[in-house]
Amino acid sequence: MNLDGGRAATIIADHSAQGAPGACLRDLTLALKGFRGAAGVDPRFAATIQRLQEGALALPPDAVDAVIDLVTAVCEECPIALLLDDADRYDATSLGRLLRRLGGRRRKGLLVVASVRSGVHPVPDGVVRLALPPVDETGIRALVGGMARLPQAAWVGPLIQALQDRK
User: Is the pTM of this model over 0.85?
Assistant: First the structure.
């Protein structure tokens, strides 16, 4: 996707990623492998990137460094926005290390946006956090009310009830 000369990559965590230590790293490498600049990865990390893309069960010790190198190579070629959708489904340890490293040092041409459920994962400075409200009537009321700017979104309750009645 082009964004005024830049690109965007959306990485969507699925339920199979829940708790898998390298899932976020795998998904990022798969999403970025077709982008210009991905061929500019430091040769020291080529084998690690390959192992991550293949879904290696044991996380290589240099895995976060390899993904940082890949992201850096891609964003040096052309600006990129990375959207990590449902990031709270990823393992907090490897995702946290990755986000701290990406957000801790400003990289020209890189914007990282992580959507997470409220209070699940801390998001470090330098990463834009989209807080997702709980998926219940209160959360949907707040989300829809904020988006639509309708007073108190009074129609959300009947809408949810109608959807639940159709099961």
Answer: no
